[in-house]
Amino acid sequence: ELAAAVADQHRCVAEAAAFYGVGWATVHKAFIARVEAPLAAALPVVRVLGVDETRRGKPVWTRDVGTGRWVLTHDRWHTGFVDSAGTGGLLAQVEGRSASVVSTWLLAQPAPWRAGITHVTIDLSASFAKGVRDGLPNATLVADRYHVVALANQTVTAVRQRVVREHEGRRGRKVDPAWRVRRRLLTGHEHLRPETFAKMWNALIDTGDPGLEILGAYIVKEDLRALLNLAGTHPERREISAALVSFYEHAAASTAPEVHRLAATVEKWWPAILAGLETGYSNARSEGYNRLAKHEGRNAFGFRNPINQRRRIRWACTRKHRREAAKNTDLPG
């Protein structure tokens, strides 16, 4: 009953201990005894692996007695490994988010298990890419489309802010047309009403060259979105090529260095972006488990011990456990 309060009802250890009139350590030991064996079981077969980081909390430093120097004991980041196309859930969490952290965990897994992984989904992280190449040299990298669009939106914002600073000598204000339409510039064209789009477009056109430079970045962003929207539609190579050429042509015509930097990033990551277009894979499931990890931390009002934190998060993010917990939960009424 003590273990079920934490494992199935998602109550924090301190609250369960107070409710049942026992010590914190008693409830914690009961929870560990309940989940230790299932979490220690062999990893399921994984075809598509997702890798992403989540913020654990503040870094923990301790002073080395021998040298007198302060050393990092616990990193502020956790790297999670997720079954992106199956039902395995969160497979593991390790401390740190460097390339060596990723490759070390991968190489520690059985060779047959690693051989079954065909694709690895990541965000646009060079560290993760290197770690995956070192640990799974035969797997195909897939760049998550959400992060590519986020980078394009950041590019539009950077162009708008720079243009306003150069021509106004200050930050944007309500009186600036570019500032008033800043949210619409980040909204997909298909989500804008025709009159709203026309109002935004005309407001920037009326400002002259500064507005044209901002609109140029907006067009490049929309070209990239159109390209990425081909994912999941089984596009032919000619469709992908046509969308990619349109993106590069508009990026080359732009005078904004931020746009050129975006185009260079897309070129660098193009094999991974193309893999996402052809397979439809993404890192969405990893992002979803990040939300669950943060929710678990809020339920416990934070964790002092990273080992306890990883155990609680892994249990909460195991899909098999979540399905069983849902069956056994009585809804009010």
From TrEMBL:
InterPro entries: Transpos_ISL3, Transposase_DDE. Residues 78-313 form the Transposase IS204/IS1001/IS1096/IS1165 DDE domain. It holds the Pfam family DDE_Tnp_ISL3. Signal peptide: none annotated. This is ISL3 family transposase. It comes from Pengzhenrongella frigida.
